[in-house]
Structures are given as C-alpha cells and as structure tokens.
Amino acid sequence: MTSEITLFVNPTAGRGRGAGAAQPAASALRAAGFSVRTVIGENADDALVRARAAVSEGTGALVAVGGDGLVNLALQAVAGTRTPLGVVAVGTGNDFARSLGLPVREPARAGALVAEALKGELIRSVDLGRIGGHWFGTVLASGFDSRVNDRGNRMRIPLGRFKYDLAIVAELAAFEPVPFRLTLDDGSVREIAATLVAVGNGTSYGGGMRICADADMSDGLFDITVVGECSRTTLLRVFPRVYKGTHLSHPVVSTYRAARVELATGDAAGVTGYADGEPVGPLPLVAECVPGAVRVLTG
C-alpha cells in the first residue's frame, strides 16, 4: 500500500469545522509516517473529479473530512474499488460515522484511527445502497422528511438548522399521507398510505435519528421503516422516540427487510427521495443493497 494518503476536504462542513479539522487529521497521519495531500474542489462536481483522479492514481486511502454530504461524494469515488475510505466526521449529522462507531467531531482522534487502521490493515467491507449509478451509505428517505428537506432547501432565511425547524412546522400544518407502493425483491407489494418511508443501509439519519435502528451494514439487506398514516399529534409523539429507536414498536410503524426495493407513489406527484441527506430525484426510485461495496478504515 502506498504511503500517500488523500484528504478529501469540505471546508464549509459543520459551519466551518471542515477547514479546521483538516490540519489535526493531517498531522496525525504525518506523525504516523504517511505523506498527505489535500483535495478541495471548487464545487461538488469538481471535487468528485479530483477524488476519482486520486483513486485512479493509486492513493493509499481517500479520507473524507466533513459531513455526510462529503462522505456521500467520497463514496461515488471509492465504491467498488480497492481504495479504502477513511472518515473524519465533522459535519452536522455525521450519520455514516455514527453507524460504524467512528469518532464524531474529534478530528485528531479520527486521523489517528485512520493511521492505525492503515498500518494494521484494519479494514472493514460494508454494504452500500445504490440507486441507478448513485451510491449511498446510510438512509434513503421519502415522505414527510423529504418534504421538510425540499421546503428547507427553498428557504433563503434563516440560516442553519433553524430553517429546517421552521420547515417542519410548515409541513406539519400542510402534510397529508402519501399513497406509497413498495415492491420488494421477493415480488411482494405493499400499498400503504404512509407518513414516511426510510430505506436503511445504516441505522440513522438527521444527526442520530435511529429511523432504521436494527440495520446492519454487513448483512446484504436494507431495513425498511414505514410510518403509516397518523395524526399530527401521533407524529409529534412518535418522532422523539426515533432518537432511541423505540419507535419501531409503535402500532403505526411497520418494518421490512429486502435486498432491493422500489418506491413509488401512484398518482401522487412531486414526492422526492433523499439519500445521505442529498436529493436523488423524484419517485419512483429503485434501491438495491450491494454487499461489501466499500472498504472502510475502522481501527
């Protein structure tokens, strides 16, 4: 394995933590004897081109320094290759790192763990989800939460998380259940009016909301959580339980496991999907779980 490591950095992640995190992570790697170069793209497309070039040139590892958005971008470069992925999680959500038990907002410790894993070849192959040619690591979500994201992304003010809090309030006032149709890999079809559907390769989204609490990133299957039709009052009662994963036992929640799932909404228009917190387009969408699609440095 080459001793040159590529830091793939989002300088704006976590309200600027990305830029500050790159230095301690790089210092930990250099202290362990690795040569470090840094990739910062002018935009997402440019960053991905640079990351893919580093992988094709034989970098010893691609280390994503940022949040789940940057990790998602890094997955597009390393999935299906032998190049291992390191994660220095310093974003807002950091759910990919949480699902793997990696350090969150501790860049020096995360960098040292990457160095230790490289030296000891401590690499874990984990599953990824794939929608067409796009990879995701944690959760594909649609319904109430995707509409909150849609609304929040359209809002120019306020900045930060507060605009998504306002978007939740606005969507609660207007939301109606969506007539979902789920087609699983065994050919079975579930038609249900649902508040949301989450297809989990990992356990959580939204910064620790354990929507698919029992998901295993090494079993070759998605855990699919469906929150059925419910009142706004019930939704407000169920949502706090998501942080502990105890919502799965609520009567309005159903769960399934499958290696492939198609999400469709019949006549309902304008329903989108978000994977790793990033928009992936309108439904219908087909997601498949690809076993061992990425090699992650886990220490």
Automatic annotation (TrEMBL):
Top class in the EC scheme: transferase
Residues of the signal peptide: none
InterPro entries: ATP-NAD_kinase_N, Diacylglycerol/lipid_kinase, Diacylglycerol_kinase_cat_dom, Lipid_Phosphate_FormReg, NAD/diacylglycerol_kinase_sf, YegS/DAGK_C
UniProt keyword list: ATP-binding, Kinase, Lipid biosynthesis, Lipid metabolism, Magnesium, Metal-binding, Nucleotide-binding, Phospholipid biosynthesis, Phospholipid metabolism, Transferase
One Pfam family it belongs to: YegS_C
One Gene Ontology molecular-function label: ATP-dependent diacylglycerol kinase activity
Record-given protein name: Diacylglycerol kinase
Entry-linked SUPFAM superfamilies: NAD kinase/diacylglycerol kinase-like
EC number per UniProt: 2.7.1.107
Source organism per UniProt: Streptomyces kunmingensis
